[in-house]
Amino acid sequence: MITNVHQLQSLYKSGERNFRGVDLSGLNLQGIHLVSADFSYANLSGTNLGRADLRWTKLRGANLTNASCEYSNLRRSSLCHADLTNANLYAADLRAANLFGAHLNGSRLIEADLWGAIAPDGGTVSFDMLAGFASALAAAG
């Protein structure tokens, strides 16, 4: 059981990449480097992942509700069926990320880079989709 950032970093540095189902809820992982790690079905709710390097990370089915991912690098990560409800993804790098089936209700995606990302409905994120999303956010207030 991982209870703090130092344990997680130590395991990662020793070559461990399988963190499936781990509970890291509420931890401060700001700026952490976890490229190509597997956090499928992990509980990351309320976790601070600001400026974290999570390229190629598997987050399939992970709980990221209320997580802070500002300026995080999630390029080419798999977020299939992840719950990102109310997550802060401000200026996050989500280029070519797979968001198929992801729950994005209330997520903050302002200035996030979604170029080439797979949308929750399985299509590719397009300019029209982002413009519609921005309009909906502006209307919501």
Automatic annotation (TrEMBL):
InterPro entries: 5peptide_repeat, Pentapeptide-BTB/POZ_domain
Superkingdom assignment: Bacteria
Stretches that traverse the bilayer: none
PANTHER family noted in UniProt: BTB_POZ DOMAIN-CONTAINING PROTEIN KCTD9 (PTHR14136)
Name assigned to this protein: Pentapeptide repeat-containing protein
